[in-house]
């Protein structure tokens, strides 16, 4: 009987500084804390990275604690029984894909039965800490066709003309971050549509989004905080026109692909997004994003410094990862 060599698991805490302080809603941040996982077997090492989100009760410590409880041997099929959906499982799942690709001498897209990935046009997210800097950022990224910023209040909505003046032809996505009411959406949507807003993310708190099934959507509505994994998909039908799939919520590439395909079968469009982090966290999402309506994978553009062999950005286009990075 063949003896399976145990996996060697290493966990690394990473802190990435932003190019400058970044404001979403009322929260201003200067850095992001990520967890990198490496899995080694037979002289080959696979890597994955995740970003814990306090919104869901996660922290770097909680992620590390989950991963350290893993047994010495497991694979992608057994992983869901060992870790719940979330960032810990994401980092490990993506490391397993990377490790298997290196062991077999192929790319992850081939292992997954996907078409060869192509460059994708990504949304760029703007910080709203200062109107002058907002205009500077909009001019800086004016070659992007779609820009996004947090609009948690009427004051934030008044920033639209600033973006529009700096980038006249851009389409705008507003991330409401669970801060609106139904009346806010009904009242504001017709006006926002005239101002070039093409999508509104998560206008209502996730526990109140049933009301979205009872109103018209002059601007499509995208689920973010309401969408986690396959288990949350059935309740979203009829409430949302699109879902934002993030690997840190689904628990990795494996279930992001499954969620994307299931959503498309139901006629729900998809956006592939991510927490702000390095190219290692973005790389698997580039594969999941190939058949999505919107791609929101601009995280490395917002960092002071990305990791070596990072994703290549050509204007608004993000290219698939090289093997030196992942996959």
Notes on the structure:
- By secondary structure, the protein is an alpha/beta fold.
- The protein folds into two domains: 8-111, Enolase-like, domain 1, CATH 3.30.390; 120-318, Alpha-Beta Barrel (TIM Barrel), CATH 3.20.20.120.
- The chain contains twelve helices and 14 strands.
- The protein has helices spanning 60-68, 79-82, 87-104, 108-111, 131-140, 154-157, 160-166, 182-194, 233-236, 247-250, 253-265, 279-288, and strands at residues 8-24, 27-41, 44-50, 120-121, 124-125, 146-150, 171-175, 197-201, 221-223, 242-246, 269-273, 294-295, 313-314, 317-318.
- Strands 5-6-7-8-9-10-11-12 form an eight-stranded parallel β-sheet. Strands 1-2-3 form a three-stranded antiparallel β-sheet. A three-stranded antiparallel β-sheet has the order 4-14-13, with no helix packed on it.
- The two termini are 30 Å apart.
Key phrases:
single chain; 327 residues; alpha/beta; TIM Barrel; 2 domains; 3-stranded antiparallel beta sheet; 12 helices; 24% strand
Q: How many structural domains in the coordinates?
A: 2
CATH architecture of the largest domain: Alpha-Beta Barrel
Structural class comes to alpha/beta
Widest β-sheet, arrangement of strands? 5-6-7-8-9-10-11-12
Give the terminus-to-terminus CA distance.
Answer: 30 Å
- Report the uncertain regions: none
CATH fold-level label of the largest domain: TIM Barrel
Mean pLDDT: 93
Instruction: Say how many strands there are.
Output: 14
Give the proportion of residues in helices.
Answer: 25-40%
CATH class of the largest domain: Alpha Beta
Cofactor: Mg(2+)
Keywords: Isomerase, Magnesium, Metal-binding
Enzyme class: isomerase
Family: Belongs to the mandelate racemase/muconate lactonizing enzyme family.
